[in-house]
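Troubleshooting: if your tokenizer reports a length mismatch, compare your output against this known-good record of 121 residues.
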Amino acid sequence: MRDENRVAERFDDMGKIVCPELCALSGSLQNISRTGLKIYFPVPVSVDLEAQNEYEIRITLAKKIGEPPLVLVCVPQWVREVEHATEIGLKALYSPDQSRYMNYISELETEKKDDFFPEII
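Known-good structure output:
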């Protein structure tokens, strides 16, 4: 999906993904937003998009090592196989950790603003 079609800005991020219902192996977080995330598994993963199944995704955020994993309940929106691996775009439906989730996204938004340097000519 193109960035201009996104409901919410996505932030490149890293973290460990655990979702045994999708894959027995851990995956990795590629990006996250207020409305969803993109994850990667190092193996092919079969996902039935038609079923609209909800999955509990546990994310150990690289920037928050030592904190409990962030829990999101998501539904897959798209799946792409890439060189014997799988990328999955997920829509976040809700989170038992909603305040932590929104606070984390706010931190990423602030970091992006703080990293902005106007171009000097």
